[in-house]
Amino acid sequence: MVFNSQSFKDIMSHWASGIAIITTGSPQGEYHGFTANSLASVSIEPMLVSMSMAKTLSTADSVLRNSAFTVNMLSNEQVYHARVFAGMVPEVTNRFDGLQFSIGGNGCPVFDGIIGYLECRIYQTIDVGASTLVLGEVTNGAFTDDAQPLLYFHRQWGVFTPLL
Question: Chain-centre distance of CA 98, in angstroms?
């Protein structure tokens, strides 16, 4: 078997992760976002998370210009949100149309019904080939225990089932 970028993607698809929508705003009141599963806690002091954005992603420029973003951790009832922000519903031209959200303290959208959110400002960016690795300093956040997360595993979205 030849190991290449497709092999790498196939292997990584077997790593279960949560699904989030990364949102950002602009001084002109424009909002942008994309579906992501590349999120990790990096540090407690300072409070940092990491996320990765493909350089070809149109929202990536907006996140970098705004220097702020919000991680919206999706519930299992928000598959439509995930699909829209992943570009899987091409007939939707404004991804925020019809979705309920408020604007957080950092000027970025926070969706209703999510399991949690983290408001971040860019702490550092790292050029990593086809992507930009973004370290975000967390400035605010909240969560609820009233919903289950939307998960990603083997190129499918699903739910969490506790074993114990």
Answer: 19
Please answer whether residues 104 and 117 qualify as being in contact, where contact means their C-beta atoms are separated by less than 8 angstroms: yes
pLDDT tens profile 108-145: 999 999 999 999 999 999 999 999 999 999 999 999 99
35: left (phi over 0), alpha (psi -120 to 50) or beta: beta
Contacts of 115 (CB under 8 A, 6+ apart): 73, 74, 75, 143, 144, 147, 148, 149
Q: Which of 12, 10, 16, 35 has its CA nearest to residue 161?
A: 16
Q: What is the pLDDT of residues 64-85, one digit of tens each?
A: 999 999 999 999 999 999 999 9
Q: Which CATH superfamily is domain 18-153 in?
A: Electron Transport, Fmn-binding Protein; Chain A (2.30.110.10)
Main-chain phi, psi angles of 85, to 5 degrees? -80, -10
Indicate the residue type of 156.
Q
Q: Which residue type occupies 8?
A: F
Report domain extents, the chain: 18-153
